[in-house]
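User: Quick sanity check before I run a bigger batch. Here is a single chain. Can you write out its predicted 3D structure?
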Amino acid sequence: MQYRNLGRTGIKVTPFALGAMMLGSFGNPDREEGIRIVRRALDAGINFVDTADRYGDSEEVVGEAIQGRRDEVVLATKFFSPVDDDINHRGASRRWIVQAVERSLRNLRTDWIDLYQLHRPDPDTDIDETLSALTDLVRQGKVRAIGTSSMRGSEIVEAQWTADRRGFERFRTEQPNYSILDREIEREILPVLQRYGMGSLVYSPLAGGALSGRYRAGQENANFRASTGMRHFRDERRLAVIEQLVELAQDAGMPLTHLAMAFAISHPGVTAAIAGPRTMEQLEDTLAGVDVVLGDDVLDRIDEIVPPGESIGAMDMVYRGPEVLDPSLRRRPPKNRSAA
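Assistant: Done. Predicted structure follows.
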């Protein structure tokens, strides 16, 4: 297994990271299998594990799995999303951050978190407040490095400038969505990360399962019925492109999943791609492709199918920033008719 620099933190990570969202109540409720999956990934040489406090009991599964092997793992988790019904048990305020980190440390059965990430930008909290609280966690030794997820380019730059101006810890990584079908981050996000020496941990390299090979054009089957509410599985444009990618993978002599994962880590701005298996079988498929390297001929054909910086349709789960086009934000408030 090869290693890459996690930004300029000095931490070395494998280009494949194990995403633990589906291990536990969010995906596979078989806790013992989830533990086996984590340990199998570690045995295979993967040293980067990513989870979040909102993924059901995923943190607990990971925490149990890494007992006795903590020093082998670069452990990443995230905060922001609601974890219960309390209105203040969410977001990026200092009040919640100091509680959230203690909660995650307990769940993960560890004294420190290698990478603590803001899961989504918080429009209700000043970035100064968030960075101040996270800086304190780093200085206390509870967190080694801090990162973000799904930030826009302008938000990344603002956070960097704020940290520099105020003497706070800088965000060292960003976790954006990236796959053959979703290449928009090549336009702005990846260049910004490279400019600031930040690492990138990309999620959904299989486009939420669309590049698993299970969803094909003209197949109205159980796979589609199980994906009710996920419009991108029924997007005819994406399905047509998937057919071209299936053919390309066959010509290259590899499964579509291996083509997709190898593509995600081929960009020089990408540090690691998150593989999020739900079963041991899915993990084994991922591990079988860790040494795949795509040649220029294959990458050129991918560019012909989905041009650099473009996306075909869009995943339902993709965060696209504040809803600035919402009528309440772009229109003048109504006149006070009673005062007229």
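Residues 4-339 form a domain with the TIM Barrel fold (CATH 3.20.20.100).

User: Great, the batch can go ahead then.
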